[in-house]
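It is worth pausing here to work through a concrete case rather than discussing structure prediction in the abstract. The textbook approach is simple: state the sequence, then state the predicted structure, then interpret. We follow exactly that order.
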Amino acid sequence: MRINRRLFRQLRRLPLVSPRLWLRRIAFWAGAVMVALMAIAFAWLADEAQATFRWMTGPRPWLVLILAPGGLALAVTLTRSVFPGAQGSGIPQVIAALHMTDLANISRVLSLRVSLGKVLLTLIGLLSGASIGREGPTVQVGASIMHALGRALRLPRPETQRGLILAGGAAGVAAAFNTPLAGIVFAIEELSHNFEARTSGTVLTAVIIGGIATLALSGNYTYFGVTTVSLPLGVGWLAVVLCAAAGGLLGGGFSQILILAPFSLPGRLGMWVRGRPVAFAAICGLVIALVGLVSHGATYGTGYAQARALVEGNARLPVSFFLLKFIANVASYLSGIPGGVFAPALSVGAALGSWLAHFFPETPARAIVLLGMVAYFSGVVQAPITAFVIVLEMTANQQMAIPIMATSMLAFGFSRLVCRRPLYGTLAQRFLRETEGAAARLRRAPRKPQLRP
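Step two, the predicted structure:
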């Protein structure tokens, strides 16, 4: 009997039969499904928000002069007063959380309350015409869901918690774009900058299960449709260098602006911007409205429709579109509202490629659109592997694999000439310092004496 009991206890500790480990695995898998469901629901809500904006402003274009300043001012007010930590894309917050050691700080950054605010405020931004995306916020919400599961299961080991945050972020990217490989690469290159053996299984499993749930509910679709265009050897390959230079420099400039402004504004102007964030958000909203009116409404929202039409060869946008969309993206992000840069950046890159295609009349324009897309995106995020994997998976075009890879790597080099620091890493360091500074001030604050009855 003693031998049988000892054998039974030893069997229970084996990874394949341990009830405790199986409970954790089931919880993690359920978390991955929840991330996929959240991403699908968020995508639907974002589309509905943009459709509502078009319905409101279609017959009354001038209404955006009220909606955009008022909506952005409201979003910033709620961000600062009700949902602190929800500003920006969400990816810097996840990177910062991965470098935190205080569990209380991590829980504040990745709380479900902040995640709910992230979704609601991003939708307010889209309802106001802001040029923002939902993919970055999806990363933060996915990481928050997995972190909440880890807390519910009382997992004390820091590497386990870190693995869950990575898994949630990766699953968020995979579900948002329906690109499972890009989710894994994003976790390696952008979020963690490495891939530890202890976390690799958690990340892979979360991405796979989240991908299965996305396929079951949304079908086997590609984000920008399917294109079979190719780039023949010869003069057309000069487009690789031209797109890499233009996209890398422009993308690096975008990142440098976001890193420096508004903190680098001199004198009274800088003091006014930093001291009146709500009024500054309203001014950014006015800029977005004016740019939208000039572009006849093309710069509002994520830019997904314009980018997909360019990839499929079904659109002809004016040459000024990529510059106007660039300005709208800068104004939207500097305003301080929640929202991502992925989809808007891909839109700017696609439009840039469409313009550069005029210099190569004998080369398929759709091929140069893909090169411009990956060049600008790589220049913004300075994560070249993630950039070309995302574009390849979103278009299902293996014939363009080598040109897209080459363009992405070259664009990364050109971007570094303009912006020496990566966008998300720099913003994460800034957010980490602010969070830890606020926590330190809270600990040093004198406690009010409690009156005894």
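Step three, interpretation. The two ends are 60 Å apart (CA to CA). The chain has a mean pLDDT of 83.
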